Amino acid sequence: MQFLKSLFCVQGLDNRSRFFAICGAVYLVFIMLTSAFTGKAIISLAILALFTSILVLTSLRRLKDAKLNKNWLLVPNVIFVLTALIIIFSEYSSSYYLLIISAFCLAVLLTYPSVNNKNSAPLNYILGYCGPVDMSEYQQITHQGKQAKFRIEPTLACDNAANLNNDDQAVLSIDETTSPYDKNEQRIDLGEIIRLKLVNNKKAQLAIAIILTIALVSVCASWLMKYLSNNEQVQTVQESNKVTKSTQNILERKHYLAMPDNFSLFLSQHQGIIINWQADEVSTPLLWSQLSAQGDNSCQQISFNKGKPIRTLKVQVENNTTVANGVYNNYFASFSPLDSRALIQALAFRGSFSLCGYNFSLKGSQAALGKHKQYTDWVEY
What we know:
Elements: H1 2-7, E1 13-14, H2 16-36, H3 41-65, H4 74-90, H5 99-107, E2 129-130, H6 136-149, H7 166-177, H8 180-187, H9 190-200, H10 202-249, E3 254-258, E4 263-267, E5 273-278, E6 286-289, E7 294-295, E8 301-304, E9 310-311, E10 314-322, E11 327-334, H11 340-349, E12 352-355, E13 358-361, H12 365-370, H13 373-376
Antiparallel strand pairs: 1-2, 3-4, 4-5, 5-11, 6-7, 6-10, 8-9, 8-12, 10-11, 12-13
Helix pairs in contact: 2-3, 3-4, 4-5
């Protein structure tokens, strides 16, 4: 519990080891959770708010520990938030590479050592933390481990401790009060060396800038490629839908049957009757459509000399088309498959019909229908 409190402490200090561990854990867990909750923006935003507060507070403690200006707190954390928002809302896996930029900005803080006032006592870091949160329980565990590891065997030369000179006692007192983190940083300050090398080496700075630029350009390029591919897929689907709709609207004409009074019959692929006849050329290709209820009212239905009329689905005109080895201006009246039996019965046993202002005789139609196996089954005596 105390360790969790130390993560949200404002007044304390974090040395380089603790700061590196916290930042690394935040980045790793953030990547795992956001990838697991892809498409769930609310959960991802809640995770982002939690991890951002942890990063901001550990950065603040690191700046205090290194005696640096607090303005350095803004840039790395703002970049992290912006990158995280891009990852959450873009849902592109390549967006995770942008975290390299914010991680590099935070890594700059690792190059600065802890700074203690010369006139004050050495700071006591416990798990890399020094502050108002009581972390003594972790210090006891650490001390017990050290005592077990470095147990001092009893010797007979007990009086030698009294013969230590003042310089030796001073060294012992410094070793007892200085934390292992401080002694390591005093011996070899690798971070300081790296930072100074980068500051004084323009080629290294240029190389880092090139690496970051390549990462940014590659991510943007992958976004562009995915965006273009998605657009192509959408266009392909739309075009296929258009083709499907157009093919659905086109009725196949098969099983041609010539009738006695200059008209003929076809069957569609849905077993709907199509009546065809030749007439004058017209400028309107669609004379009537039941779907839109617009067009020539005389084409709404086929009327017989007796009995009920039957509604048409549509009547269209094709100028200069070939039907039965001749090029004509052809009218095609299409009917519902549900009316096929009733329509064939009427054509077989009625005397005449009218459609679109044209009149046709049905004399001899019964014999013509009986000769074609596709239509004779609908003729009931």
